[in-house]
Amino acid sequence: MANFHGLNSITLNPDDELPPLASGKIRLYNMRFCPYAERAVLYFAKKNVSVEVINVNLVDKPKWYLERNPLGKVPTIEHDGKIIYESAVVAEYLDDIFPDSSVLPKDPYLRAHQKILVERLSAISGAFYGLLRATADNQEAGIANLKKALDTAESLLTDNFYGGKSSGYADMLVWPHLERVEVLPLIRPDLHLDKLLGTDYPKLTAYIARMKELPEVKVAIRPAEHHVQFFDSYKTGKPDYNIGITAA
Amino acid sequence: MANFHGLNSITLNPDDELPPLASGKIRLYNMRFCPYAERAVLYFAKKNVSVEVINVNLVDKPKWYLERNPLGKVPTIEHDGKIIYESAVVAEYLDDIFPDSSVLPKDPYLRAHQKILVERLSAISGAFYGLLRATADNQEAGIANLKKALDTAESLLTDNFYGGKSSGYADMLVWPHLERVEVLPLIRPDLHLDKLLGTDYPKLTAYIARMKELPEVKVAIRPAEHHVQFFDSYKTGKPDYNIGITAA
């Protein structure tokens, strides 16, 4: 997408110098496999806002990154000396400064409703991370947890999208975790999750297919095999942040 | 305060009937000792918005409550058939429908900054709940955790309030947990936390004194001995939600 510059640029390490940011430009500090940062990528894509992406090593954090975000997490955006982080705060900030492309509805109740949906769907991320690390002792509880989260997601889907007829705020915020849930059977083949999504969640399955057709999702999504390779490297304590980057 | 009706009304149980809500009125479903519900109380008080309060038993949850909020948590507000929950969502909704008394600033960056402060100060609530339940095994780690959270809070306080010269959104959202941290030495005398706040955190100590002078805090705050009695009852699995209510 023409509005992204550097979405797949090489990840910067502590020894790398931070390129200067031109006045008026917006920069996104990103990690290519972080679902929270992906929320910001989806938002920039959906709003078609021009952005320069800096990919950051989150295990060995550059000093210049911690100076900008003391929590050391992604996403962070920088804009005329202003620093904004936390994925939901970044999304609202982008809507506030570019109101013409606001993803959040203007109506107070509909706005609140989108945020409540995100809260109710957040059980998916908890369940995903639980299963990612599940041991023989707790994998049964983890699978039950995921089923419960997906049951909720299935029941809350009453239209094409969580945003209604078109995709909205809740869709942008929940998608990155659903993308990873879909890949979980490949990341953890030992858990035998293959059929989990397909048969029990017809609405959610159709929703995932629908989401994959959205231009913003096409920008942000990573191939399943890259997710698998990333998590394999992550487990070793040395995540490979540059998986899938092809030499220029 | 004249705008509150029923802030200290008797807590309703599953067998109690829910009184009808008049059209145009706003109702807050509350639990008198819940810090998240207290955020909403502070917000209604600060904005001087008229509200009817229903106190709800959160151990034995009334069916009518779960129908309104499937998560069964407080605060929830009800307003002309609309249901809004999650404390931060409730606060923004109240600002959206009563913009003249908006607590959140209009400027996008200042808005974002208030929300980032809440995120950074949220370590206080985690540390508080950790110490509330601390055992001999983990109390040292719990105390270190609280100190770290308070160090951050001390360093982030660069003016009279987190909102700046006057109290703001971040103050309303962080206060309920600070109120409880101050009472922690009485709830858990075995942890010897008495001098924790007084000596190491001069800015925070002055801030707490300043907060207690605000009209909205005077409405929402509970006496230390009521917090202690509540937590003593909570530990038994039978929380006494009606501590401090005097017969009409």
TrEMBL record, chains A, B:
Pfam families (alphabetical)? GST_C_2 (PF13410), GST_N_3 (PF13417)
Q: Tell me which residues make up the GST N-terminal domain.
A: 24-102
Q: What is its EC number?
A: 1.20.4.2, 1.8.5.1, 2.5.1.18
Q: Name one GO molecular function term.
A: glutathione transferase activity
Q: Which SUPFAM superfamilies match?
A: GST C-terminal domain-like, Thioredoxin-like
UniProt KW keywords: Oxidoreductase, Transferase
Task: Report domain GST C-terminal positions.
Answer: 107-231
The GO biological-process annotations, alphabetized, read as: glutathione metabolic process
Q: Which Gene3D superfamilies match?
A: 1.20.1050.10, Glutaredoxin (3.40.30.10)
Please give an example of a GO cellular component term from this record. cytoplasm
Q: Which residues form a coiled coil?
A: none
Q: Which family does it belong to?
A: Belongs to the GST superfamily. Omega family.
- Name of the protein in its database record: Glutathione S-transferase omega
Q: Which organism is it from?
A: Plectus sambesii
